[in-house]
């Protein structure tokens, strides 16, 4: 069952009802499946090498469902997609970067789990909105002649801190890319090494998030059934991303996606407040 209602600002959102008497209850609203399908495609393209596109997936889902449930539904899909992307870039990664960032990521995931366990759905939606608005704005800065980046090789402890921020935002909204990228880009990796290191980093992070989402009760029948529904689309979009990234410049898509993130982020913040 899906409860659909309009708030005063006319933004539509949905959330799952608790299944009663052991009956499996799934969404019936076509809007949900359209939005969720687009979110899965964006994640697939990101896993295939279009870094940044996947950050819009969770904010999109938060428009049509409980954001914690949406993140729980998306995590197994991310983990399956990880297999494709890690295999594709298995020979192109930097081991030192992983060793520096992953300990911080583990701490960030733990802190985000603590936060999600004590705040309500609207507060989580607001956090997702803030993350989307901030990260979308960050990626649009170069178009305005500004850029937030570390100049030259940064101290290694910065990598651990950025790993922590990445783990936190990844746990909340599956959007850990920008903090990791700010530091990783300062190391001037070749493109494929950067993509491969990012793929392996977030693969490990996703496995770290499993206990946290299990503790939040998000691996339930409803979420796992929806995961199975969208899994074929996830795999196809990841394979497509791996092929497209070798032929098409990701920058062609980034502007539209980041503008979308800013708009969605503002909408989610407004929903959370009103």
Quick structural gist:
The protein is mostly helical. 69% of the residues lie in helices and 4% in strands. Strand 1 (2-6) and strand 2 form a beta hairpin.
Task: Note down, in words, how this protein is organized.
The chain is mainly alpha-helical. The chain has one domain. Helix content is 69%, strand content 4%. It contains 10 helices and 2 strands. It has helices at 30-47, 57-64, 67-88, 95-116, 121-140, 156-173, 177-185, 191-215, 221-244, 251-273; strands spanning 2-6, 12-16. The protein has a two-stranded antiparallel ribbon. A hairpin with a 5-residue loop joins β1 (2-6) and β2. α2 (57-64) runs antiparallel to α3 (67-88), α2 (57-64) runs parallel beside α10 (251-273) and α5 runs antiparallel to α10. The longest helix has 25 residues, at 191-215. It is globular, with a radius of gyration of 18 Å. The two termini are 24 Å apart. Residues 1-21 have low confidence and may be disordered.
């Amino acid at each position: 069952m899906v409860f659909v209602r309009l708030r005063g600002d006319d933004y539509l959102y949905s959330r799952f009802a608790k299944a009663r008497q052991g009956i499996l209850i799934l969404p019936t609203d076509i809007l949900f499946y359209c939005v969720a399908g687009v979110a899965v495609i964006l994640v697939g393209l990101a896993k295939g090498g279009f870094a940044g596109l996947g950050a819009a997936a969770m904010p999109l889902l938060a428009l049509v469902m409980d954001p914690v449930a949406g993140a729980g539904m998306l995590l197994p899909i991310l983990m399956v997609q990880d297999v494709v992307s890690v295999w594709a870039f298995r020979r192109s990664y930097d081991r030192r970067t992983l060793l520096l960032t992953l300990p911080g990521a583990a701490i960030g995931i733990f802190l985000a789990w603590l936060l999600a366990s004590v705040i309500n759905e609207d507060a989580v939606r607001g956090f997702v909105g803030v993350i989307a608005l901030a990260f979308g704005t960050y990626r649009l800065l170069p178009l305005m002649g500004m850029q937030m980046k570390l100049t030259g090789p940064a101290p290694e402890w910065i990598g651990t801190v950025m790993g922590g921020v990445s783990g936190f935002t990844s746990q909340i909204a599956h959007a850990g890319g920008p903090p990791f990228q700010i530091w990783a880009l300062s190391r001037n990796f070749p493109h494929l090494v950067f993509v491969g290191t990012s793929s392996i980093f977030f693969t490990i992070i996703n496995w770290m998030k499993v206990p946290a989402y299990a503790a939040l009760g998000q691996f339930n029948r409803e979420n796992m059934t929806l995961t199975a529904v969208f899994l074929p689309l996830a795999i196809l979009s990841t394979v497509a991303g791996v092929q497209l990234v070798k032929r098409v410049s990701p920058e062609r898509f980034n502007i539209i996606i980041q503008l979308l993130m800013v708009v969605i982020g503002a909408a989610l913040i407004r929903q959370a407040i009103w």
